[in-house]
Design a protein that fits this description.
This protein has 564 residues and is mostly helical. It is built from 24 helices and 15 strands. The strands form 7 sheets. Strands 7-10-11 form a 3-stranded mixed sheet. A hairpin with a 5-residue loop joins strand 12 and strand 13. The N and C termini lie far apart (49 Å). Its main location: membrane. Keywords: Cell outer membrane, Membrane, Signal. Belongs to the SusD family.
Length: 564
């Protein structure tokens, strides 16, 4: 179905504006002011639809992933990473970091847009029942963006009023006040949103309950987190897909999805707008729209004998690589998530004879036919004798990591690639825009929220019951019983390990480590790149210098502690 994008300009504090894209048809309306347009049913619908767009700047985008997955215990920088400071916590992680400034701008623009919608919907000509639903969406999304703001930057500026024009003052609002507003908005959303929507991607009542469960877990409200997560599990028609691999190899719209960021196969409609003009931004942060997760976790396999870039193995940007710790979290003898998550074998797609060098530096010739093994990757150390006896390239632990130095990366272009985000439906090998939806909340998370909340509340039996549902689904055939855990195995570190196995790369890890007070501990223990640099103040990001320079109350609105 053809869509026409309508540009909405909403000035905000030091920010630009947001663009919108409806779920169905929109008309491009010209000659109307925002106030006049929002007084129409069509205008207010377009405004609400626009509130979803900022998620596309975050999910499936390089710097959104970098801020949530690297600099943790499970991912570090590959050789192609364009914003290493967020992975390393070095002195370059400062107030002038461009991606951090980008997201500050986008999230505050999103907040202002939600505030605008919440103020204007009650006076709009929408039917009363429709007003309640659209208000529920707007308040859910405000809570969603407030969560990103407060967890990224801490107790910074909070407003629930529409901002027209430029404000020169900013407030410092306590984290608890942010969460009070988040819970108020989510309560309204849960009371007013429908259980389902005919327009895929709109937030619904169970999505609001699921996100509220996550928020209550963050604040240590374990009884409420468990209650809401159990409700999502039992009261609706969600179910875990039969195998973990099918989450990534089949349609991303499936029974496990509680809420997705929806992309599209129409590449024109996946293009994102920079919030300032009607032209697509050339900003490298946007990467031409779409879900681009498929690009970033792949090593440069196409530089090795027998291989060339193809759609099957993806376009390798080599931005992010796993730590050895992430690899060690999987028991591949019983956990099917290992093979579903990582690429361990590449088969020849460029037959021919090649001159290669063995581990002693001596040249030899190898010949590959189509379909032969060209590359084999393993988390174990392989002897030089075995490497030299095989025609294919072996990327073992000792080639990627320094096993004598806490598994610090030795190279950053040859590693175990995360394949779960590959998008074989792309039309060409160079296409960056991916069309797969991005998971925001899956049903598996609800089981793990119950497990963690009940464990923290002292009911280990219920905790074990729920975590084992996820682990049985993850089991290789015939290994379900071996995958089950017992009460004595369960603690917060095990749950974090399980969340890493289940959600690696899905933009939750940094937040998970922060909320459990494990960020510093686990980065120092398992991420040799970041371990020397990370400090307690890194639990929040620096406030952009442009923001600090622009406010008039500089003595009140100051930089987060520890940053220059």
């Amino acid at each position: 179905m053809k869509k026409v994008l309508y540009k909405i300009l909403i000035p905000a504090m030091l920010l630009g504006s947001v663009s919108c894209e409806s779920f169905l048809d929109e008309e491009n309306v010209s000659g109307l002011t925002a106030t006049g347009y929002y007084s129409t049913a069509e205008g207010i619908e377009s405004l609400v639809n626009s509130l979803y767009t900022p998620m596309r700047f975050w999910y499936g985008k390089e710097n959104g992933i970098a801020l949530t997955e690297t600099g943790t215990d499970i991912f570090t920088r590959g050789n192609g990473m364009e914003n290493p400071p967020v992975a390393l916590y070095n002195s370059d992680l400062s107030a002038v970091n461009v991606p951090i400034n980008f997201y500050w701008t986008r999230f505050y623009a999103a907040l202002n847009a939600t505030n605008t919608a919440i103020e204007r919907i009650p006076e709009s000509p929408l039917p009363e029942a429709q007003k309640a639903i659209r208000l529920g969406e707007a308040r859910f999304l405000r809570a969603f963006y407030l969560w990103h703001i407060v967890e990224t930057w801490g107790g910074v500026h909070l407003t629930t009023q529409e901002q027209i024009g430029v404000s020169t003052t900013a407030n410092r609002t306590p984290v608890e006040t942010f969460y009070q507003q988040i819970f108020e908005d989510l309560e309204f959303a849960m009371e007013n949103l429908p259980v389902t929507s005919s327009q895929y991607g709109r937030v619904t009542k169970p999505a609001a309950e699921a996100f509220a469960a996550r928020m209550h877990l963050y604040r240590g409200n374990y009884a409420e987190a468990s209650r809401l997560a159990k409700k999502v599990i039992s009261d609706y028609n969600f179910s875990l897909v039969p195998s973990y691999a099918s989450l990534w190899t089949a349609n991303s719209r499936n029974s496990e999805v509680v809420w997705n960021v929806n992309f599209t196969a129409d590449l024109i409609l996946n293009r994102e707008f920079d919030g300032l003009t009607n032209e697509t931004s050339d900003d490298i942060l946007l990467r031409e729209g779409g879900n681009n997760s498929h690009l970033f976790f792949l090593m440069t396999y196409d530089q090795l004998p027998g291989m060339q870039r193809d759609i099957r193995y993806g376009r390798p940007f080599a931005r992010f690589m796993p730590t050895a710790h992430l690899l060690d979290l999987f028991d591949e003898s019983k956990d099917a998530r290992w093979d579903a998550t990582f690429q361990t074998v590449w088969y020849t797609n460029k037959p021919g004879t090649y001159t290669v060098t063995d581990t002693k530096g001596d040249p030899r010739q190898v010949t590959f036919a189509a379909g032969d093994t060209a590359i084999y990757a393993t988390k174990y150390v392989v002897s030089d004798a075995r490497k030299n006896a095989k025609p294919y390239t072996i990327i073992d632990r000792s080639r990627t990591y320094n096993v004598a130095a806490n598994d610090a990366p030795r190279v950053r272009d040859r590693y175990m690639s995360l394949k779960k985000f590959l998008d074989p439906a792309r039309q060409t090998i160079s296409q960056q825009q991916g069309q797969r939806d991005a998971y925001v909340i899956r049903l598996a998370e609800m089981y793990l929220i119950v497990a963690e909340a009940e464990m923290m509340a002292g009911d280990i039996g219920v905790a074990v019951e729920h975590i084992n549902v996820v682990r049985r689904r993850a089991a290789l055939p015939g290994k379900a019983a071996e995958m089950e855990v017992t009460a004595d195995q369960l603690n917060i570190d095990f749950i974090l390990d399980e969340r890493a196995r289940e959600f690696a790369g899905e933009q939750q890890r940094w937040f998970d480590l922060k909320r459990t007070n494990k960020l510093i501990e686990r980065v120092r223990a398992f991420n040799p790149d970041a371990a020397p640099n990370i400090q307690p103040f890194h639990r929040v990001r620096p406030i952009p210098q442009a923001q600090l320079d622009a406010v008039s109350n500089k003595g009140e609105f100051t930089q987060n502690e520890g940053y220059n």
